[in-house]
Specification:
By secondary structure, the chain is an alpha+beta fold. The chain is 47% helix and 19% strand.
């Protein structure tokens, strides 16, 4: 299950990144193509205007001029005293020499019947191919557009003069298309590399994300298993005891009092367990709301300790109380009493006869501290970080009661009051629970 989920998360993340890269590459390609086309149209319109005005009679071949050795300038005062050089020259000779960068335009003039009457000097095509290009352009109704010849696009702009002569300005888009293909190839290669890296990154992140999911799933399974176990035990005791009672129907109720008391105790314990489970379930779904209001914390502590005095007296345990007076706190009084009850119940159950339990409530400058220290059996260090987990019990047997949910509930209540709860212990000597409230 987790393997499939991890794979789905990885593929989803990689797919999103793939779609983003496709959008980026496609958008960049078409934006570049659009900008080049727009620039080509602007230059073609200027060339056409120059031809119609008689300012442009030809478009000569542009060829790179190799740099010559600098010569002394005949005119003094120039920077460096050197004669400046033109970066390229125009010439009708040496067609094999390299061309300068930039758009390559050429134009033709045709008669009324479509016959070519003039060719500009810078012609990239042979005569037969040029005739095909011109014929295809004349056949188009639009005055501006593209003509494709041998997989090359040739933007054109045509205009008719007063004497029925047609002027067509072309641009050779071969170099531009080559540049776009190189750009697109580079983007595709970079995209493939990034997609591969994103897949690896997505797999890593999905694996990291699966950690809490696995932990939550395992906690849920443990919770269900432990809850089933805790509920099964009292149900088994009740069922067994009822069988005993029903097997002695001739006996009086008084003679069956022992078995009925067992049923009652297990019912109380099961009811308490169900209440704890419901409390934690509401807490997990953020439905366990607190009724916070100002109250006397020291008075509430006295009330919470009072019911346990009898339990302590049965085991001859001494309860020592050191409580500062007039401590006002803003919180849920009933829930904080519940925390005190949970901690005292644990302390009494794990403290042997003639033991000692000290309860202290002290207010410092910016916090209130409650400590409950017992002289019981203590807790091994390895268990200190686990005792607040649900259903966790150091003593796996049920000999000392408890369901392993009390400390989990206490922790939730304290943290909901923006406080902290911690424990320290010396095995066989003492254990101290410390609650700090703001």
């Amino acid at each position: 299950m987790f393997l499939n989920l991890r794979l789905k998360l990885t593929l989803m993340n990689a797919s999103v990144i793939f779609l983003l890269f496709v959008f980026l590459i496609t958008g960049t390609y078409y934006f570049s193509h659009l900008q080049m086309t727009k620039r080509s149209q602007e230059i073609a319109q200027r060339i056409m205007a120059g031809i119609q005005a008689g300012e442009i009679n030809d478009l000569p071949v542009r060829i790179f001029k190799e740099l010559e050795a600098p010569e002394k300038s005949e005119k003094p005062g120039l920077p460096g005293d050197f004669r400046p050089l033109r970066p390229f020259r125009t010439s009708l000779e040496a067609p094999g020499e390299p061309r300068p960068p930039g758009p390559r335009f050429f134009f033709v003039k045709t008669s009324e019947n479509g016959k070519i009457t003039f060719l500009s000097s810078d012609q990239p095509l042979a005569n037969d191919k040029l005739k095909v290009l011109v014929a295809a352009t004349i056949a188009k109704d639009n005055l501006q557009g593209f003509v494709t010849l041998e997989n090359n696009d040739y933007p054109y702009l045509k205009s008719t003069t007063s004497n029925d002569e047609t002027i067509i300005v072309f641009q050779d888009f071969t170099s531009e298309n080559s540049m776009l293909r190189i750009q697109a190839t580079a983007f595709v290669i970079a995209g493939l590399i990034c997609i591969l890296l994103s897949f690896c990154g997505s797999f890593f992140m999905a694996n990291r994300a699966m950690g809490p999911i696995k932990k939550a799933w395992q906690q849920q399974q443990d919770f269900l298993s432990d809850a089933s176990h805790e509920l099964r035990t009292p149900l088994t005791v009740i069922q067994t005891t009822l069988d005993v009672v029903l097997g002695n129907q001739a006996e009086t109720v008084a003679s069956q009092n022992k078995w009925l008391q067992n049923i009652r105790e297990e019912s109380i314990q099961m009811s308490s367990l169900v209440d704890s489970l419901l409390f934690l379930a509401r807490a997990d779904s953020n439905q366990q709301l607190l009724d916070k209001q100002p109250f006397s914390l020291d008075h509430a502590l006295w009330q919470a300790v009072a019911p346990f005095e009898a339990l302590a007296a049965v085991k001859n345990i001494t309860l020592e109380l050191c409580i500062n007076n007039e401590i006002t706190f803003y919180g849920d009084e009933a829930r904080l009493k519940q925390v005190v009850g949970i901690l005292l119940d644990n302390a009494i159950r794990h403290t042997p006869e003639s033991g000692h339990i000290a309860i202290r409530l002290i207010r410092s400058e910016n916090k209130t501290m409650l400590t409950i220290t017992d002289s019981g059996e203590g807790i091994e260090t390895v268990y200190l970080t686990k005792i607040f987990d649900r259903f966790y019990q150091v003593d796996k047997s049920r000999s000392k009661g408890g369901s392993g949910l009390g400390l989990s509930i206490a922790k939730w209540i304290i943290e909901s009051h923006d406080g902290t709860i911690s424990v320290t212990s010396i095995p066989g000597i003492t254990t101290t629970f410390t609650v700090q409230l703001p």
